[in-house]
Structures are given as C-alpha cells and as structure tokens.
Write a structure and sequence with these properties.
There is one protein chain. 27% of the residues lie in helices and 29% in strands. By secondary structure, it is an alpha+beta fold. The N and C termini lie far apart (50 Å). Strands 9, 10, 11, 12, 13, 14, 15, 16 and 17 form a 9-stranded antiparallel beta sheet that branches. Strands 1-2-8 form a 3-stranded antiparallel beta sheet, with no helix packed on it. Strands 5-6-7 form a 3-stranded antiparallel beta sheet.
Length: 294
C-alpha cells in the first residue's frame, strides 16, 4: 500500500492512497481514495478536506479493519520533517475560512459540531447548529429551538421564525430571497458565508449527484450532464410540496465548471460536498437564507 505523508497539526500522519469502499451500519457505502484512521475515528479526504466519521458508525468489518490499520500505521512526530505547503486560504472577519483549490473550487470547510441524537436527522436545526459552530456564536441554538417549541417528533415547524430568531440571538443580519442567484451566492461564499437553501428534491436524483462525486474523484475531467440537454433538464426536481422539498447548505462553487457545491450536514460523508449545475439550482431553489455577522 502506497503511503502519503501529510502534515497535519501536531505531526505527520500516514494516509492511504488506495481506493477502498467503506460501509456504515445502515449499509450505505462510500469509496474514497485517501483516508486515515486515528483513534476511534476515520478521516475521509473529500474535495480537499478531511471529513471525520466515528468508527462506531461503520460496519463491524470496517471497524475491525480501521483499528488494525491504525495500529499498523501510527502517527509519526514531525521533527525535522518537510511540511506540505497548504493551499492558499482566504479569511473574512464576517465569515469562515475559504479554500481555493487548484481545480477552481471555492469552498468553505464546514465544522462537524457534536449533535445530540434528538436533532441528528432534523436538518433545519442541524444547519443552524453548524452555523453556530462555524461562526463561533456565543449562543445555544438548540436551547433556542426548544424554547420555540421545537420537538424531535414534530413533522412541521416554523423554520423561518427560527432562522430570524437565531440571527437576532447571534447579532447577525439575516438575508433572504425566493430565488437562487449564482453571482450573489459566490459573493457570500467568497466572504466565508454559506447559504441555507430550500430546494425541490428527489431521492434518486440526489443519489445520482452523490454518485457523480465518486466518479469525479476517480476522473477529475468528469462533468455533470450539460444543462442544455433537454432530457437531463426533465430529471431536475421542480415540485416543492410535501416530501419533495429539502433544506440544504451551499458551501462552495466552481465558476469554470458552472457548479454549486452543496452539503446536508447530518446525512453523512456522501453529503458533505456534492455538486449540482448552477442552472439546476436556479430552477429548483425556492428560498435562500444567509447570515451576515454584524
């Protein structure tokens, strides 16, 4: 197995450069080329950033493999070692760190806040908890949700009211629009400000977008279907009623490729950074929210 030495914080960590599928306890599989295991956590390298996943959430076979790999490849101290030059980053007093990758991606590295079990699968609350940690808001947004009568078993809830209340608590200006504008989104993202979007959704269609991410990792020249393809456009979800809608975060863009980079924080590694044509975002999004720290 070929090893790559990556300089990470306190030392040099051995990471695998061999593609390997990993399966979680529910049977979902992700294949990544670069990963490492440290302690009880496996770190997947996805789109230039490390995505942590507890070994306990993986299949028994992958848990055993990960622990054995960690034993065989302990972290080595960085004394006298040459360090890898980090990618250039931008920072903003009004936002988070922004990373510009060689492939043209401009992306915000979202934190992975510890989520209580009760909110783990409730996206509208998890996106605010993610922003809370990203911006380091000195507030308790979960307590705020509960104060506003949110409960895990509530199917419908006034998310709009919660977003505005969160902005007020965090002393942030909340901006909203009913359409997605690529250039406006790029302006916020370059400042380190991810967006929350409500978009039309279809399970099979999103799975196709996630599958493309795996294709892109293997072939950097791969491209999503052309937005001028009439058959492709017919597959874009445009129904926002009932279960056909979903809350997501826009965390990056690639102007050369004409793509938007999305994340659903509580859905696992596959949904940390997947791509969509900007034209699809424009027709499938029906609400946009941004938080501009004052």
């Amino acid at each position: 197995m070929k090893l790559i030495l990556c300089c990470l914080a306190a030392g040099i960590i051995a990471t695998s450069a061999q593609a390997r599928p990993w399966k979680d306890s529910s049977g979902r599989t992700i294949e990544v080329v670069q990963w490492r295991v440290q302690g009880e956590t496996v770190y997947f390298m996805i789109n230039g950033k490390e995505v942590p996943e507890p070994l306990a959430k993986l299949s028994p076979e992958d848990q055993a493999f990960g622990r054995q790999w960690a034993e065989e490849h302990p972290a080595k101290p960085a004394h006298g070692a040459a360090t890898a030059k980090p990618e250039p980053k931008e920072s903003s007093k009004a936002g988070a760190k922004v990373e510009k990758l060689p492939n043209g991606d401009v992306i915000i590295n979202l934190p992975s806040p510890p989520l209580e079990e009760e909110v783990r699968n409730y996206i509208p609350v998890t996106v605010i908890l993610t922003l809370e940690k990203l911006y380091q808001w000195p507030t308790d947004m979960l307590a705020l949700a509960k104060k506003m009568d949110w409960k895990p078993d509530i199917a419908t809830w006034d998310e709009r009211k919660y977003y505005f209340a969160a902005g007020k608590e965090a002393h942030a200006r909340v901006l909203t629009a009913d359409k997605f504008d690529f250039d406006e989104a790029a302006r916020h993202l370059t400042k380190g400000q991810p967006l929350i979007v409500w978009r039309c959704w279809g399970k099979e269609h999103d799975e196709k977008l996630v599958a493309f991410n795996r294709t892109l990792q293997a072939n950097p020249e791969a491209k999503l279907p052309s937005p001028r393809d009439a058959a492709e456009r017919k597959t874009w979800p445009t129904d926002s009623s009932n279960s056909n809608a979903i809350t997501s975060m826009v965390i990056g863009f690639n102007r050369q490729r004409g793509e938007v980079i999305l994340a659903i924080p509580c859905w696992g590694p596959d949904y940390v950074a997947f791509r969509m044509r900007k034209e699809e975002m424009e027709v499938s999004t029906y609400a946009v929210w941004s938080f501009d720290p004052k």
